[in-house]
Every structure is written in C-alpha cells, then in structure tokens.
Amino acid sequence: MKKLYLLNLSILIFATLVLKSQDQNYSQFFNNRLYYNPAYAGLYNGVRASFNYRKQWTNIPYDFNSYNVSLDMAVRNLPGAGGVGLIFHHNNEGTGMIKNVYAGIVLSARIYPAENYTIQFGITTAVSQRSINWDGLVFPDQLDSKYGNIYSTGFTEPFRGSVVYPDFNFGSVLNYTSESMNARIGGSISHIFQPKIGFVETESQLYMKFVAHADALIFINGSSNRRDRRSAGSAKINPGFLYENQNGDNTFSFGINGYKSFVYLGVWFRNEDFNTTNLSTMVYLAGVNFPINDDSRIKIMYSYDYVMNGISIGSSHEISVIFEFQNSNVMGAAAPGGHRKNWGAESCSPF
After folding, report:
1. Looking at residue 345, what is its pLDDT?
2. Residue 3: which residues within 8 A CB-CB, separation 6 or more?
3. Which of 173, 183, 328, 329 is positioned for an S-S bond with 216, CB 3.0–4.6 A?
4. What's the pTM value of the predicted model, to 2 decimals?
5. Cα 340 from Cα 351, distance rounded (Å)
6. Per-residue b/e over 163-195, b at no fewer than 16 CB within 10 Å?
7. Beta carbons of 314 and 307 less than 8 angstroms apart
8. Regarding the domain with residue range 2-335, which homologous superfamily does it belong to in the CATH classification?
9. Are 84 and 42 in contact (CB under 8 A)?
10. pLDDT in tens, 63-93
11. What is the C-alpha to C-alpha distance for residues 331 and 16, in angstroms, rounded to an integer?
12. Taking 80 as the threshold, does the pLDDT of residue 309 lie above it?
C-alpha cells in the first residue's frame, strides 16, 4: 500500500515540477491526422470524422486514457481554399488526478504547383485547459509505516488547480496523386509560443513539438479510381514513417498497413532512435471497412502495443472509428449549367 502512495506522489512530482512536458503519442497516427498536422484539413474531397481512444500502460495502477475527436471537410468554393476542421482532445493522467482538455479550429489553404500535385498549409487555433485534483493525492507525511494513510498532511495547496492557455500549431503537406499511387510528405510545428502550463511557482513549459511524416498508398490491383478502390477485389499497401521531436526527446515510427477484401492488417515499430536492433515497441493492427455506398464508408481499427524493451509498464490499446463521406460536391463552387467545379484534381481518401 505504501508503494502505491509513493507512486501516486511520484506522478504528482513529475506532472507539476518537471520541465519537459510531453504530448500524447498515438500508435494510429495515420488515423489521427489533424492532431499531428493541421494541413490535412480538407485535403481530400468530402467530409471525414475520426474518433480515437487510447489506453496506455495497462500494468500501471492508474488511468492513462486519451480521447481525440476530429472533423474536417473540403472547401472548394474559392481558388486557394483548402478545408476547415474541428479538433477536441482529452486525456487523464493517474485516475483523473491530472486532466488535459484541448479544443481547436483548423483552417487550411492549398496551391497546385504542377499536375497531380497539391500543397496544403494549415493552422490550428486552440484553447487548452490543464487541471489537477489536489484532494486525490497522498503525501509522505500522511503515511504510517504500519497502518498506511492515517495522518493529516501539512501540504498547502498551490495558488491554482488549473491553467488555461491558447495554443497554435502550423503544418504543411505535399500530396501526389496518380492512377497507381497516392503519396504524401509533410511536417508540422506544435505549441509555437511554448505556453506555461505549471500549477506551482516553478513554471512548467510546453515545449514546441516538431513532426515529420511520409507515406504512400499503393494500389496493387485496380487504381485510384473511386469505384476500383472500393471493390472487394481491390488491394493496397500503405508504408509510412513518422518522426517526433519535443525538447530533445525523439520518437520514430515506421511500418506498413495492408488492405484486402475490406480487412486491414498492419505492423509498426516505434523507437527513440534509428537502431533497429533495439526496438522499444511493436504495434499490431487489425480493422475492417464497411462501405455504405461508392462515396461513404465506416472504418474501425484496433491496435495493440507490445513493449519489447523489458519494462513492465504493460501493453497499450488503441481504437479508431472513422466516418468518410467522399462526395466531391461538398461545398464545391458552382459552375455554369448548375454543376459544381473543383479547383484542381480530386485526391483519393486516406488509407
């Protein structure tokens, strides 16, 4: 019991005094695009809604749960318009001791440097709140070596239990589309102004996070034609890479997903460096695609993180549910004759 209280305290110390505050990472980053790069807002025609849940480190006797919801749609009514989106993120640290809530609006603009190429730039303007429940904590002066938590504490609650701050993220992505492939490469900067997020006088700073990513959606049979890529016989693979850096801490993720007969399978690796002989985490993924019609579908994916470096923090679980309505006329510009028109070629939807 005493060890449990000390673990509780160590989490408090880490959360309130440590200067290296870090963002939540998602294994299914390819299903959580606005969280990593606002330039994805409206990159593909239609409307896309994504719901993500992550339960991290199941062997630790505290809740480390994260929830992310995003919605974006293409806007083609003006030349240069990209899309708009909304994003909401919430996570708990230590049975609800610390809570983070994040809500933002995403805007993007696009240019066409050459045929089959699109570049989008995006920005997220958000408000975030970080709060702590001081009443749920147990301090060393409350503990008896034999009977546990029996004393009152002399701890004085700091001057605040929550902090609210604005947050800004910027990103860009280059998209290439052909009959046989859809490839993307991009990057983003989060927490541009590095807000203060501490609860005590020793202020904790949310440092900038840098992200670089690349992936390709390759069609094995069929093509990027909308009808071909939705058929039961279509097959495609999606290799990718993600790099994150925040205040000197690095994370590399690389792997591949496959799709055949409405079923997804994937395997990914995550590490703190490029040393592939000492990988820290292996991620297994499985999912299904439920087509509604040629333009709409529901995707459900589950991933399991297996820790390979011997640390007994336990595995992590992640679930994503994605709704896609790829109607190329959504918010398109009216063209002569009552038709609508797109500025540029249509891009196929993400994997």
Report:
1. 46
2. none
3. 183
4. 0.82
5. 26
6. beeebbbbbbbbbebeeeebebebbbebbeeeb
7. yes
8. monomeric porin ompg (2.40.160.40)
9. yes
10. 678 999 999 999 888 788 899 999 999 988 7
11. 45
12. no
